[in-house]
Amino acid sequence: MAELKPGARLPLLFFGMLSLLGGVMAGLARLGWSVPGPAVQAAGVHGPLMIAAFFGTVISLERAVAVGHNWAYLAPLAAGLGGIALLAGAPLIAGQLLGSLAAFGLIAASVVALRRQVAAFTVVLTLAAGCWLVGNLIWLAGGDPAAAVPWWLLFLVLTIAGERLELTRFLPTPPLAQKLFIGIVGVLLLAALAAADRLLAGGLIALALWLLRYDIARRNVATTGLTRFIAACLLSGYFWLLAAGLLGVAGAFVPGHAWRDAALHAIGLGFVFAMVFGHALIIFPAVTRIRIPYRPVLYLPLALLHLTLALRVVGGLGDVFALRHLAGLLNGLVLLVFIATIVTLVSRNRTGGTR
Q1: How far is 269 from 261, CA to CA, in rounded Å?
Q2: How many domains does the chain have?
Q3: How far apart are the C-alpha atoms of 149 and 139, rounded to whole Å?
Q4: Nearest to 286, CA basis, from 16, 77, 6
Q5: Interatomic CA distance for residues 15 and 8, integer angstroms
Q6: Residue 352's pLDDT band (cuts 50, 70, 90)
Q7: Boundaries of domain holding 276
Q8: Of the candidates 195, 264, 335, 354, which lies 20 to 30 Å from 146 by C-alpha distance?
Q9: pTM, whole model, 2 decimals?
Q10: Is 125 a domain residue?
Q11: ∠ CA(78), CA(83), CA(84), 5° rounding?
């Protein structure tokens, strides 16, 4: 069968964007903001919407494009439908089962990529998909998203780390670096298995330091244009991952801890979304065949992302709810600013406005 055409992939991406929008509004509902009714009833599944539904859709869609098999697109379809089920107020098990099916699909697609090229980075990407499945099954079994958080975080963190590991082949990286990386991944998986929050935090610190030391972004930040912008996104994200690990060592990953919001969003917003901002101009065209031109204005949403997140972290560390309340709204608005910037760049490029 011919591979799914780019135009047919857009509805899958749209489903993911619905989960993102719903997840952001559900997060605002948790902070006490007035949002539409469906977002209020989805406040308890803010995490699943953002990780299992939105990122699950986007990552599995990217993987489906990479492996080039039509069946692989069932994974982003299931993830997207799972997000819609959560937003629509369907029985919780519907979203849980769809998310689990999506994770199975991503694992299958990752195994295809692994068989094509057996390498450390393809193994890590497959393990990341497995972490997503484990998190979903824990959520399915117990109904508490908090219990699945360590595994969901590793799904995102290891996916990003695995993709960055692939690019170290373009650098004169010493053999010890890859051994250290594999050891760090082992520590992170062991920490999740043992539910050892501080060990998990230590692993994240080690990973952040590894990325800051060995990632090609260190060199690329001295270049220009899109390459420099991506490097700036990556390096800034690594510092947030380091900050999250340090907070975790202080106990912030423990459910109910006063700093938990700061630690989790340092990873989710500071680390993960910095990667999204940096790679959107590469991933989106690869999936949709719609070119996004680079312009320096992209630094604006990146700067706003870090500024508003810093406000949220300060509010969390100082137990100033009013600051967290405001920063949460600003976090959501920054994502809208980024999306609006991308849409504007695409529109102007198609009409010749950027020439």
Answers
A1: 11
A2: 1
A3: 9
A4: 6
A5: 12
A6: low
A7: 225-355
A8: 335
A9: 0.94
A10: no
A11: 95
